[in-house]
């Protein structure tokens, strides 16, 4: 709709209509073929000569459609715009009624096949939107999509949550110690207790939880992002014991080995700074810096 001279290319993948999931209407075709026919129909209703092509890509869904030319003259744009508006409204009417009644509708396979049920004609107020707005109330995504994986949360807020959860695990039970027998020394290091995500959430204040709920994955995502401190397994949160981590493989490709070496000691060790027993690893074995003097 952007201009009469525009062209388009589309590679259909997920089965969606204008207003939600696409509902099948023909059992004689595969779901993929039926959906391809629907996408081609949309192009035809919009007044394009629709061409179909199969891409040479390693995917089961590789049929694409190209619209390079129009089926009508530029002077007929208003009529086609009206046709598109009616088509979109008919799909909405069908989607709502199908959901209400639990049955599908009979649709023609051809371009002009609008809904045959009562109410296929758009309401008066929506007919007037031809040429201006096709779908009143439709909210497109913002041009810049907000990152909501906890990565954009303020650093001070994340550090506070990490410290609170770590203290919660460390103080959950009386000193639960792990023995470090490296070099024959019997040093104890408090690994704390494991708690479920729900138990951890119950100990956080409402304001913190509200802030986390606005992010995808919430508390779990934040804890997984801080994998230096925590390990989340089967819905339970543990403090990570770096002595149990597998040493880096010597068979790694040279590029990956070089990247790992470059990232060594570039951040402070959380355990060295915050854990009551310090880090469970000696400085030379820890991938993080034990003090600012070791930072690279």
TrEMBL record:
<feature type="domain" description="C3H1-type">
    <location>
        <begin position="263"/>
        <end position="293"/>
    </location>
</feature>
<dbReference type="GO" id="GO:0005737">
    <property type="term" value="C:cytoplasm"/>
</dbReference>
<keyword id="KW-0863">Zinc-finger</keyword>
<keyword id="KW-0479">Metal-binding</keyword>
<feature type="zinc finger region" description="C3H1-type">
    <location>
        <begin position="263"/>
        <end position="293"/>
    </location>
</feature>
<comment type="similarity">
    <text>Belongs to the TRM44 family.</text>
</comment>
<dbReference type="InterPro" id="IPR011671">
    <property type="entry name" value="tRNA_uracil_MeTrfase"/>
</dbReference>
<keyword id="KW-0963">Cytoplasm</keyword>
<dbReference type="GO" id="GO:0008270">
    <property type="term" value="F:zinc ion binding"/>
</dbReference>
<keyword id="KW-0808">Transferase</keyword>
<keyword id="KW-0819">tRNA processing</keyword>
<keyword id="KW-0949">S-adenosyl-L-methionine</keyword>
<keyword id="KW-0489">Methyltransferase</keyword>
<dbReference type="GO" id="GO:0030488">
    <property type="term" value="P:tRNA methylation"/>
</dbReference>
<comment type="function">
    <text>Adenosyl-L-methionine (AdoMet)-dependent tRNA (uracil-O(2)-)-methyltransferase.</text>
</comment>
<protein>
    <recommendedName>
        <fullName>tRNA (uracil-O(2)-)-methyltransferase</fullName>
        <ecNumber>2.1.1.211</ecNumber>
    </recommendedName>
</protein>
<keyword id="KW-0862">Zinc</keyword>
<dbReference type="GO" id="GO:0141101">
    <property type="term" value="F:tRNA(Ser) (uridine(44)-2'-O-)-methyltransferase activity"/>
</dbReference>
<dbReference type="InterPro" id="IPR000571">
    <property type="entry name" value="Znf_CCCH"/>
</dbReference>
């Amino acid at each position: 709709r952007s201009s009469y001279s525009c062209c388009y290319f589309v590679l259909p993948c997920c089965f969606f209509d204008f207003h939600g999931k696409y509902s099948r209407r023909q059992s004689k075709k595969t779901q993929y073929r039926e959906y391809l026919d629907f996408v081609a129909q949309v192009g035809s209703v919009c007044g394009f000569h629709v061409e179909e092509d199969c891409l040479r890509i390693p995917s089961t869904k590789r049929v694409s459609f190209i619209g390079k030319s129009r089926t009508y003259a530029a002077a007929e744009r208003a009529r086609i715009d009206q046709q598109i508006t009616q088509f979109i409204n008919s799909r909405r009417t069908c989607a709502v009624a199908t959901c209400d009644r639990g049955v599908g509708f009979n649709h023609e396979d051809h371009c002009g096949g609008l809904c045959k049920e009562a109410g296929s004609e758009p309401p008066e107020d929506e007919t007037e939107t031809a040429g201006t707005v096709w779908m009143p109330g439709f909210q497109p995504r913002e041009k810049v999509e907000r990152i909501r994986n906890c990565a954009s949360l303020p650093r001070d807020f994340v550090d506070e949550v990490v410290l609170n959860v770590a203290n919660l695990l460390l103080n959950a039970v009386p000193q639960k110690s792990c023995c470090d027998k490296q070099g024959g020394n019997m040093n104890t290091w408090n690994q704390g207790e494991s708690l479920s995500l729900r138990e951890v959430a119950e100990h956080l204040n409402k304001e913190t939880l509200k802030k986390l709920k606005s992010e995808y994955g919430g508390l779990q995502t934040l804890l997984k992002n801080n994998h230096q401190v925590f390990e989340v397994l089967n819905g339970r949160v543990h403090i990570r014991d770096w002595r149990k981590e597998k040493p880096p493989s010597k068979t790694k490709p040279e590029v990956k080995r070089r990247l790992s070496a470059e990232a060594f000691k570039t951040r402070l060790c959380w355990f060295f700074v915050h854990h009551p027993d310090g880090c469970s690893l000696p400085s030379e074995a820890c991938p993080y810096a034990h003090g600012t003097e070791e930072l690279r």
